[in-house]
Design goal:
With about 350 residues, the chain is α+β, with helices and mostly antiparallel strands. The protein is built from nine helices and 15 strands. The structure holds adenosine-5'-diphosphate (ADP) and magnesium ion.
Length: about 350
């Protein structure tokens, strides 16, 4: 009698144990590990991180994503021009006065910026700040183009060769009074790279860090197929310019639809030609694919300023960089010679 009672107790315990174990490992047995997706508003845009990894629990993947958001916050706190105490604010306040001590990350970003300035003959220039402040894209209220006199004065303080970097100290010095640095054309890409590094350090090998359409893509989807990335059509709406299949690289797009205002029937957008002080003409959008989002971000802005012909020349000159330019007016699509390898379906009309 007592023997049979202990037999039934054992059976109940074993059954409960089996149910618990099946619930725990069921997901893995069914083949699809959970994809974790978290959104966060940072850098003035919606950042979405999707990630999964076979060797990590959902809780560990979530913690890794929070770590990545932390890395983006660090970049934002360092590189925002309108945040008192940020490295960029301190550099701007000390323009023409003295070098400012900064973190190594600032030197790293400014070195890439310098490289892209040189590659593009000054089309990309982080000393664009004084001109950008006149246009006031990021300040609320009605806007109008600046007066030619104000623009001429601001253009006098635009010169990337006057940014002095001392890597050993490390310090940054803007040589002229009134010079203003603005990292809006590169900081987002740098933040995407830092977030991606954080995820990799935490052991996550499959993810997308998407900052408002600019992203780094790693590994595959949790069903084993490649990540598919839609590139927005600059003509607007929800239609896509193309769909990409990519892994292990960044995709960054600069467009004239991101930030703009209309004045007397004319549209003025936020990518400025440093030679004229006016919004650059010639491109509607530029998409760049390469291994680092930081470099992709700066190159996309540079190509946008150079215009379709010279811009495409620059992309073709750069090793490991592909791109797609949409020209303004006729909306022609100009892919670089190797862009097709990333197209889902192989052609632009897909
Ligand atoms: P988004 O920020 O919309 O992704 P971009 O990467 O093209 O677009 O960056 C545009 C930003 O870059 C502007 O808002 C401004 O802060 C900055 N910028 C504008 N013109 C230039 C330029 N010629 N060189 C460097 N930075 C620029
Ligand atoms: Mg850019």
């Amino acid at each position: 009698m007592s023997h049979s009672r202990s037999f039934w107790s054992l059976l109940v315990i074993l059954t409960i144990g089996a149910i618990v174990l099946f619930a725990y490992f069921g997901k893995q047995l069914s083949g699809e590990p959970a994809l974790v997706k978290i959104d966060n508003f940072q850098l003035g845009t919606l950042i979405e991180i999707q990630a999964w990894d076979n060797s990590l629990t959902e809780t560990e993947v979530k913690a890794a994503i929070q770590g990545a958001f932390g890395a983006i916050s660090d970049v934002e706190n360092t590189m925002s021009w309108n945040l008192p105490g940020s490295a960029v604010s301190r550099i701007n306040e000390a323009a023409g006065i003295e070098p400012v001590e900064v973190a190594h990350s600032v030197i790293a970003v400014l070195s890439t910026a310098r490289e892209v300035s040189e590659l593009s003959g000054g089309a990309f220039d982080v000393t664009i700040g004084s001109v950008l402040r006149l246009w006031g894209f990021s300040t609320p209220g009605p806007k109008a183009p600046p007066s030619p006199a104000d623009l001429a004065e601001a253009l006098d303080r635009l010169d990337y060769t006057a940014v002095e970097l001392t890597a050993t100290a490390p310090t940054v010095y803007l040589r002229h009074v009134g010079m203003q640095m603005d990292l809006g054309g590169i900081a987002k890409g740098f933040a995407i790279d830092r977030a991606s590094e954080k995820l990799k350090e935490a052991g996550v090998s499959n993810f997308i860090v998407n900052a408002g359409g600019d992203m780094f893509v790693s590994g595959n989807r949790n069903n084993g197929t490649s990540w598919r990335i839609g590139v927005r059509d600059p003509l607007g709406g929800d239609s896509l310019l193309c769909k990409l299949l990519i892994s292990g690289c960044a995709v960054v797009t600069s467009g004239n639809y991101e930030r703009f205002f209309d004045y007397n029937g004319k549209r003025y957008h936020h990518i400025i030609n440093p030679k004229t002080g006016y919004p650059s003409v010639g491109c509607s959008s530029v998409t760049i694919i390469t291994s680092r989002a930081e470099f992709a971000d700066a190159v996309a802005t540079a190509v946008f300023v150079l215009g379709p012909e010279r811009g495409l020349d620059l992309i073709e000159r750069l090793e490991g960089v592909e791109g797609l330019i949409v020209s303004s007016g006729d909306e022609r699509r100009l892919p670089s010679s190797g862009f097709g390898q990333f197209l889902h379906g192989g052609s632009l009309d897909e």
